[in-house]
Input
Amino acid sequence: MQVSSPIQLILFIDDRPSSFEVVKAVEEFLQGCPPESAELQVIDVTGQPYLAEHFRVVLTPALLKIYPAPRQTIAGKSLMVQLKNSWHSWQLALQNLQHNNVECKNQIDRSAEIIKMTDEVFRLTQEKNYLQQQLHFKDRIIAMLAHDLRNPITAISLALETLDNSEDKLTPEQQEQLLLHARKQVRTADNMITEILESGRGEVFHFPIHPQRTNISEVCQRVVEDYYLLHKLKEKQQDLITDIPKDLPYVYADGERVQQVLANLMDNAIKYTPVGGKIQVTALHRTSQKVEITVTDTGPGVPPELREKIFEEQFRLSRDRNTEGYGIGLAVCKRIIRAHYGKIWVDSPPKGGSSFHVTLPVY
Output
């Protein structure tokens, strides 16, 4: 029977091999029918789940007849049996509507338009979600940088206060060292302010990473000799143990960014280690391709099931809800290290506490 208005079918499949066998079987069946008696559209819902949701398809493979009305869906292992059993009734329904070709064309056009509009809505939704995530991250970066400004400002204040109160007791070398430290912290604060201003200019914030041949031993040494961190160690009567070989190979990294990461890890270690505890910073040439730096504390440790989650944005351990740390900092540390093609993770030594490890590629 030759018809002027074909039966309209949509076959929904997924990426399983069995789905493609169904496509082949349906196409072979339609090839055995009168020419131009049906039009088949195949949709892989693996990449377009919104279309399955729109047409209320809950199982794949599924064959949806959208014309002639009413819509009918057949699915499951007996799909081909159902198709063969339904085909005659579909042809009769189509035959009854042949006198109204305008209605047929309108219904087909509406179905095509729905698919097109649904696809566009999904694309715009994805774009909106992406922009919202980027804006959220930018806001968190601004909050982190503004928060971290306290560290260099406090360090400058401590250095100047020491100079004012102990000028007569300090040697010229000690005075020069304090002034040098204060100048470094002024530059650090200035860089942070610049980053805050730059991140506020656009909708998306990206860390500026400028990797180059870097002496990682010197970077580690600057962190463990930081005046502000040493002051915090002294306040909590904590011991600092270091093992930083001077002959470590150079790494390909942004020294300032890596220093930011290590200072953050050491600051967290001091914060979570009780009074009189120990902090250990070690560095070693793990393989010919990477250097590993580890910051170990004697604090409460991190539960095994949460050791990956603490590097996620907004995640915080329940015990830390009312304290600073393990929030913005670790998520940003992870972004910085990944931008260097390195790795950051945490585990617990046999005697307790936490060990945060960072790897960087050898130059």
Q: What stands out?
A: The chain has two domains: 7-118, 209-361. DSSP finds ten helices and eleven strands in the chain. Confidence is low (pLDDT under 50) at residues 321-328. The first helix runs from residue 17 to 31.
